[in-house]
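Write out the 3D structure for:
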Amino acid sequence: MQVHEQNQVTIITILNEECGALLKTVEPLLEKGRLRYVFDLSQATFLNSVNIAAIIATRNRIVATGGKVAVSNLADNIKAVFRILKLERLFDLNFDLDQALAALR
């Protein structure tokens, strides 16, 4: 997992099978007042149910503190799973990184 900041948005690049630590990564950032996040999935080719649950739980925690979350660069297979799970209600599934950053401005 890679974390960096751009234009006051925290970008978390998620790799395969890495989501378990997502909430632990975000919690201290929330405590510092960081409220805008992009989960960049450009490096993920597969997410299992545990990883998807971690993304949803982390998104819910961020939103509960008044923050905003976008996802970017979903592979077609991941996008299909997100659609089956109706996650387009939580995320726009068609953003690239620039679009996700713009949506959080």
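The chain has one domain: 2-103.
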